[in-house]
Write a structure and sequence with these properties.
Blueprint: H1 14-22, H2 25-35, H3 37-46, H4 53-76, H5 84-91, H6 93-101, H7 106-129, H8 137-154
Helix pairs in contact: 2-3, 2-4, 2-8, 4-5, 4-6, 4-7, 6-7, 7-8
């Protein structure tokens, strides 16, 4: 590995941006197959129903919501003083939300995920405001969350 300088504080690292955008692919695929019947037919035939439309949005959306709990847990390791307990406690909320709220049928699950990602964005902003998340965090999270919400919403049209 070569020693490369880290980006200036507040500047979004390219790796975070590229991997964040790559993580949108299943959401975009789910939205596309939910909105385009011919693509859905192809997807179900080639990949199976689990990887198409509302189903891929539910499966992948649940996984990523739980994954984001782990990200917040990592940020909680930076907490000091009175913020330690709340930072760790709040970090598990997205995973618990997914566990308890997703699963009430395909449409109801998508609605629960929409609320979950909205709540996650609030937590992102809180961890950022407490300086537990990197300075660039909200520059990444706001557009990614907007795209995820649009993709999930496509399944409800």
């Amino acid at each position: 590995m070569t020693d490369r300088p880290t980006p200036p504080a507040g500047r979004l690292p390219r790796a975070a941006l590229v991997l964040g955008l790559a993580g949108l692919i299943p959401f975009l695929w789910g939205a596309a197959t939910a909105l385009v019947p011919a693509l859905d037919t192809f997807s179900q035939g080639a990949l199976g129903p689990r990887f198409s439309g509302i189903y891929v949005l539910n499966f992948y959306g649940t996984i990523i919501l739980a994954f984001m709990s782990g990200v917040l847990w990592g940020f909680a390791t930076r907490a000091r003083g009175w913020t330690i307990w709340p930072a760790y406690a709040l970090s598990v909320l997205p995973a618990l939300w997914a566990f308890f709220m997703v699963g009430g049928g395909p449409e109801g699950s998508v609605v629960a995920l929409l609320w979950g990602y909205g709540g996650l964005l609030v937590l992102d902003a809180l961890y950022w405001a407490l300086r537990l998340a990197p300075r660039w965090w909200m520059m990444l999270r706001v557009p990614l969350t907007a795209i995820v919400a649009a993709c999930l919403s496509a399944a409800l049209l």
